[in-house]
Amino acid sequence: MDRIAITGGARLAGRIPISGAKNSAIKLMAASLLTEEPLILTNMPRLADTRFLGRLLTRLGTVVEESDDPSADVVTAGQTMSLTTREIVSGFASYDLVRQMRASFNVLGPLVARTGQAKVSLPGGCTIGARPVDLHLKALEALGARIDLHEGYVYAQAPRGLIGAEIEFPFVSVGATEHALLAAVLAQGTTVLKNAAQEPEIADLAECLNKMGAKVSGAGTPTITIEGVSRLGGARHAVIADRIEMGTYALAAAMAGGEVRLTHARPELIDALSAKMIEAGVGVTRHDDGVTITRDPAARLKAVEVTTDPYPGFATDLQAQFMALMTLAEGESLVRETIFENRFMHVPELGRLGADIAVHGGEARVRGVDALEGAQVMATDLRASVSLVIAGLAARGETTVNRVYHLDRGFERLEEKLSACGAVIRRIKGDGEPDE
Ligand code: EPZ
Known about the structure:
alpha/beta; UDP-n-acetylglucosamine1-carboxyvinyl-transferase, Chain; four-stranded mixed sheet; about 30% helix; binds ligand EPZ
C-alpha cells in the first residue's frame, strides 16, 4: 500500500489551485439518475470517490464518460464527466458498494423518484461515528415512499410517484437535506424543507438541478422550497470549488510558514476558519478567486479555541487539520467536536509526533509544544490523514503517513500540489520503491 513521506521544515511559497469539491461532485453525479438526458459536469476532481460512484452508477444504467476539461486551465487539471441514464437498468445498490462509500446511499432517493422503487443497503457506521440515516428515511417517507427494512437493506417504493410535503429536520443534516432535495424535485406538488443544512454544496446541487429544469428556491438558507416537476432534462454544470481542500492548504501553509496563494476558489466559504487563523496570528488576505496565507515561521502562533458547527460555522472537516496547527501554538487550545461523536482518531497519531493532546468526550485540550518530531503514523479517515501530512510539514525529520488510500479518496494530486510550493513530500509505492 502506498505511503506518503514528508521531510519537515521547508517553508512553502507559490500557488495552489483548488479543485472541484468532492462532497458536491458525488451528489451532482447522483442527480444524473433523475433524467434520461446527459448531465455534463465540469471542474470534476479526479478522486477515488468519484471513480467509485461512477462504477456504481454504471451498474444502475448510467453511461459515464470522462475526458479532460477543455475549459480548465492546466493548473486545475479539472475533468469533464458526462453521465447519461437513458434507462435505469437496476434499482439495487449492494452492501459491498455502499459500505465502501457511504454517499452511495444517496442514490436511493433519485431511484425512487424516477422509477418508483429501489433496494439500497444501509451504510452502517464508520470510523468517525455511528452515522445513522434515519432522517433520510423519514424524509422519503414524508414524500410518500413506503420504506421497509430487511436484512440490512432499505426497500423503498412509491409506485404512483412521490408527493410534495413539509419536512422539518430535528437537527441539521447535510446528507438528509441533499437526499430530500434529490427526491422532491420529481415529486407532485410542493415540498418545503425546514431546518435544512446551509452548506455551499447544497446550493451547488440546487443550482445544477435548476439548470436541469427543477424549481428549487432558498437553497443555502434553512428553508428550501421545491416545486415538483414531471421531468428533468440534461444540463452542464461546473462543480463548486472545494472549500475543505482550500482550508486544508491554508492550514498547511500556516503550519510550514511562508507565503502561499490559493486560487480558483471562493474565500468567503472559509470565513469561520479564516477568522480563527487570524486570531492565531496567521496572515489571511482575500482575493476575488482565493486567498493568500502568510506566516513567519519564526513567530510563534497563539492558541485559540474552536467549536465545530454546521455551515456557516467551523467545519468538522477542518477540525483535525486545525488541531495539527494548534499542536505548535503557544498556550492551550480547546477543540470541541459537535457533529460526529468519534472524530478524534488523529489525536493518538499526532501524539506519536510529539503533540500534547488530552481528549475528554467531545473536547480536546491541545497544549502547544516547541517542536514536533517525525514518525510513522496512519489514520483511519480522510481528514485525519491529511492532518498528519500538515503536522509532518513542520515536524523535525521524516514523517511517513501510511494508509494513503484515505487521502486519495478526497485530495487530488496532494503531493504534487504541496511539492510545487517547496514541500519535501513524496509518495512511496506499495512495493517500498519511491514513486518517481
Ligand atoms: C457530510 O456528511 C459530509 N460528507 C461529511 O464529510 C461532513 O463531515 C458532514 O457532512 C458534516 O459537514 C459528504 O458530503 C459525502 P450529516 P453527512 O448528515 O451528510 C447525524 C468528509 O470527510 N445524522 O450532516 O453524512 C450524523 O450521524 C466527510 O468529506 C443522523 O443522526 O453528515 C452526524 O452526527 C466526512 N441521522 C450529524 O447528523 C441522519 O439521518 C451530521 O451528519 C443523518 C445524520
